[in-house]
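Entry type: protein chain
Record version: 2
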Amino acid sequence: MSGRARLALCAYAATLLAAGSLIPLVEGVGWLVQAAMLLGVQSGVGALARRVPLARTLTIALQALVTLVLLTLMFARDHALFGLLPGPGAVMRLGELLVAGGEDVGTYSTPAPMTDGIKLMVIGGVVLIGLAVDALAVTFRSAAPAGLPLLALYSVAAGLSDGGASWLWFLLAASGYLLLLLAEGRDRLSQWGRVFGGAARNSGGLAGVSGGSSPVRTGRRIGVLALGIALVAPLALPALDSGLLGGSGPGNGRGSGGGTISAVNPLVSLQNNLNQPDNREVMTYRSNIEDPQSLYLRILALDEFNGSEWRSSTRRLTDVPDRLPQPTGLSGDVAVTEVRTNISASRSYQQTYLPLPYPASEVRVGGRWRYEPEGRTLVGDDGQTTRGAQYEVGSLVVEPTAAQLAAAGTPPEELLREYTQVPGSLPGVVADTAEEVTEGASNAYEQAVKLQDWFASDGGFTYDTTVTSGTGSSAIARFLRDKEGFCVHFSFSMAAMARTLGIPARVAVGFTPGTMKSNGATSVGLRDAHAWPELYFEGVGWTRFEPTPSRGSAPSYTRPEVPTDSASDVAEPSAETSDAPSAAPSAEDSCPPQLRQEGGCGPSQEPGAALPTDRGTPTGTVLLVVLPAVLVLVLPLSPLLWRTRTRNRRLGSGGRTPADAAARTLAAWREVTDTAWDHGIGPDESLTPRKAAARIVRLGRLDTTAAEAVHRIAGSVEQVLYAPEPRPAAGLAEDALAVGAGLRASVGRGARLRATLLPRSSVRVVWALAERRTALAERWANRPGAGRWSARLRRLSRQHG
């Protein structure tokens, strides 16, 4: 076997051995077999290209192209040209999977389910790291630096494993790297021939020894450094907990111990919550509503379906008004009763969304909270969470009749367009099944009731929380075929089917009403976590439906002759809070007989009964599970990601003091100048704000709306800079976005693409790094004794040549 063939084989083996450290982080090992196959093809293509021979850069480019084709065949075959070539459709599909996978990586707990997005990131990341190792060790014949990508792969896995990666994975990864170094050393020495005793003393022998020993010494030094970093790096990477509704403890991080309950995405731990050995109490409440079974506590709504998952759209936040506006679409003809609810959150329940009855009309809560009008949700600002919160909520009990829902008018065009969107990847069976189930329905209300009843009772579905989770198009099709799943499957599938029928739909996430306690309060535990669909009817607004059997309660307006909710005596505010988790499931004495018969009173309390494991949506805590893959795949998108983050930070809320208002004004102006820079209008620091605004309007060929927005921001900047008592204007964030829209409209498609993917203003990152480097160099030079050390280093350098 030739030296390069041996190097290629060792590079292949080293990559697979290092990739083994990811096995504990994801479910199953089938992905490793697929990655091994792709790595083998990639290595084979490199070997053939080097035998031709091709230039080094062409060899790497050919390997990368073949890798892209293989990933297209595996993940985007239906969108590829001729079922093979990665055309625009396939690239877009891969991008969608990467976006979905990036969010999954930041939310799933270990071991994470192998969703399509995570699978692409894991396999694609391993293959791309394999390409880097092959290029460094074989194509460029420098095995020592090839340990850096291998080190990154192992270090990420070590930092995210519970308690750190086991010694087995460390030994395997280190053995692979050392094997690669030995293969390179043997290859280098073989090029000089054997060095025997006497021959080693002549000049040629000395040259041979020098030529062979130098890379070996370099390899040893880098190897020792890499292995040392591999041991230390995991200490700096904190293991992540299980997410929003699931507890995190000092043990396994899955909610079995104490600690807090925290995460960002509300679907992080539906599966883990419903599978807790103890129904840990997250909040208690008192309400004057007559039928507590209709009081769902809603966290937020997921209104965007991209084919890989349902998620919440990014929307603007405002200050919480004293009185929340009238719910969208609700007319005065519908009967409405306002009720009061006093809620006390446990100190172990910590997340950024405030659970509220829907639709809330008034919220009295202390702390830093912001209001999202479209979803009518409250979001914590600047680290604010629900931990130990006590708050009072006024909410509306909307009581539409079947006749009112059946006579609902056509929704507004904008709302209809947004909330009936379905991805192109949605299988045709979803729409076909929706048409079949709703056959004979004369209006959208009858279609919705038929869908609910089909899922809840008529369709032969089984509530099973052991089913593999997933919320994408393929998961919905699989659920309709197998007819087994839990609340996430039922709600997401009904919402998707409603959208195919032209009914605006979204999915709400929160808690079912909970269980009444002996003291009159209602307890809500982890196993009350739930998801349900909301459908829009003009004149009534967003309306709850309950397709999941044995969970929650069907709304009265979907059942004939069922009494509606009404308010009773106003409840006194509850001061009690839950400081400790509940040790046992709460009783269900308040469960009505009809709901008990339907199994709608929560989890079973029979001894030894299997607890549900709702494997909801892509959420948990595998953040950075495949950091090498993220780095390699997302690197071309890093300017876009940095620019998006910077824009959101500049235009987001930043406090309420005059100084904060001034800072927001200057940040909005910086955003305008950077946006103009991205579109080819470079900044000119010598101009006043007013002249700079006129320059942007002129060179950007802005329309009237965008031009007025630029001048308003410039006027506010002059107020901040020059006025004795600055009065910054309101709405600067909206003005900055309007300027961006005007600049995009004034340029061609190529310029818009360049401004989005490769924004010129991202060079500020390089400038910032250069400034920090200079500052560190100056600080080091000014340290006491730095001059003596520098002189000593120069003397040693001269002595050793």
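Comment: Residues 193-213, 233-266, 562-627 have pLDDT under 50 and may be disordered.
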